[in-house]
Each structure stands twice: as structure tokens, then as C-alpha cells.
Amino acid sequence: MASRPTLIGSVQRALHLLDAVGANDRPVPAKLLARQVGLPLPTTYHLLRTLVHEGYLRKLEDGYVLGDHVSSLCRHTATQRLLTRTRPVLRALRDELRGAAYLSLYSDGEIRLVDVVDGPATPSADLWVGVHEAGHATAFGKCILSTLPPGERKDYLARHKLADLTPHTITDTRVLEQRLAQGGDVFDDREEYLVGTACLGSVVRGPGVVGAVAISVPAHRYAAVKTYQTAVRRAACRIARAVTLTP
């Protein structure tokens, strides 16, 4: 017979209080919460004080409501649901091409790195400059920039200086525009973001979604990277399907 898992009663009681507060449309007094959850009032007060202190609840004049920390968790829920679908794709890409795999999305006018899947034999690049500031120098950044309407891309480039990150970085807007026009749905980064690292990325397209999947390897493997276009495109298509299916 399987053994029962060890559970922490105080944690269970605190979670039940959170559920009870969240199930109500109005602030809930402590005495009502104690009755709903079936707890002694002193215990209820003790747990409520702790939850308020940690930001999971807020105490108002007429009762308790969910706190800012719960709102923050809710904002991250969609991303975590997305990762459960996309992580296997990135892991497979990493193992197939023997390089770190990346997923980035365009959100609120910025390029955001959503996930990185690496390993001891496939370390990720040292992200020494925030990727939201280096779209011009990364493979996945170029993928995303290439999909933006001209006006939106112009706005992004006006807000983000083409920083000179390495001797190979494109710092001229006209040259970057030419490169974006020529790339199709696959773009590379040959030591433009980081000396010693090469990247290849492909555009991820889905309803209401703009993003990119990319792979990074040591720069001496750049010639091999160029042969990975089919695999990276395939991963991008799988990611697009996963993004579309995520509620």
C-alpha cells in the first residue's frame, strides 16, 4: 500500500484561506473566513497576519482581499503554461544541434527572452547586455524586428541605440534594414552580440504572437550553424503551434 505524503497543516490552512478570500467578490471579515474554512478564530488571525505581511492578502476596513503578490503570480501563470508546451521543443533542439536554445517574444514594444534551455555540454551565451537592448545584435532579435511593420520597427530602433557590442555588431540603421530585408525567416548572429558565439534563429508566427527561436554555439562552429536552418525552422513551427494552443 502506497504511503501517504507528508503534508504541512499550516500551509494547507493558509491556502484554504486564500481560496476563501479569492472566492468572494467583496472583502471578507476574519470571523466569516474562520467559519468558511473551519478554523478557530485565533488561528485564523495568526494566518491572516502572516499572509498580509507576505503580500498575499490586504487588510481593508471591512475585511480581507487578495494582495499584490497574488496578482503578480497570476501575471506569470500564462508564461508558465506556455513553457510547459515550449520547453520540450527547445530541449529537443538543444539535443539535436548541440547548442543552447532560446525562445523570445515581442511584448509591449520590447523583445523579451522568455526561456533558455542549455546544459553542461551546451552552455548558454553570457547575456551581459539585456536582450531587450540588443535586438540588433542577436539572431532572435533580428527575427522579431524583421516581422514588425515599418513604423513599429522605426519606433523600436528610435528607442534602442544600436550599441557597438563587438567589432562585428551592426551599428548603422541602414545596414540593419538591408539585412532584415534579405533574411527571410532565418537570421544569424556571427559574434555580433558576444565574441566567440554564433547564433541562428527563426521567426515564430502565431495569432497575436511575434517571436523567435534560436540556437547558439561556439563561433568556430559557425559553418555548421548555417546548415541548421531546417531544424531551427521546424522548431519555430512547433513553437508557433504551442503558443497558439496555450490559453
TrEMBL record:
<keyword id="KW-0805">Transcription regulation</keyword>
<dbReference type="GO" id="GO:0003677">
    <property type="term" value="F:DNA binding"/>
</dbReference>
<keyword id="KW-0804">Transcription</keyword>
<dbReference type="InterPro" id="IPR036390">
    <property type="entry name" value="WH_DNA-bd_sf"/>
</dbReference>
<dbReference type="Pfam" id="PF09339">
    <property type="entry name" value="HTH_IclR"/>
</dbReference>
<dbReference type="Pfam" id="PF01614">
    <property type="entry name" value="IclR_C"/>
</dbReference>
<dbReference type="GO" id="GO:0003700">
    <property type="term" value="F:DNA-binding transcription factor activity"/>
</dbReference>
<protein>
    <submittedName>
        <fullName>Transcriptional regulator</fullName>
    </submittedName>
</protein>
<dbReference type="InterPro" id="IPR005471">
    <property type="entry name" value="Tscrpt_reg_IclR_N"/>
</dbReference>
<feature type="domain" description="IclR-ED">
    <location>
        <begin position="69"/>
        <end position="245"/>
    </location>
</feature>
<keyword id="KW-0238">DNA-binding</keyword>
<dbReference type="InterPro" id="IPR029016">
    <property type="entry name" value="GAF-like_dom_sf"/>
</dbReference>
<dbReference type="InterPro" id="IPR036388">
    <property type="entry name" value="WH-like_DNA-bd_sf"/>
</dbReference>
<feature type="domain" description="HTH iclR-type">
    <location>
        <begin position="8"/>
        <end position="68"/>
    </location>
</feature>
<dbReference type="InterPro" id="IPR050707">
    <property type="entry name" value="HTH_MetabolicPath_Reg"/>
</dbReference>
<dbReference type="GO" id="GO:0045892">
    <property type="term" value="P:negative regulation of DNA-templated transcription"/>
</dbReference>
<dbReference type="InterPro" id="IPR014757">
    <property type="entry name" value="Tscrpt_reg_IclR_C"/>
</dbReference>
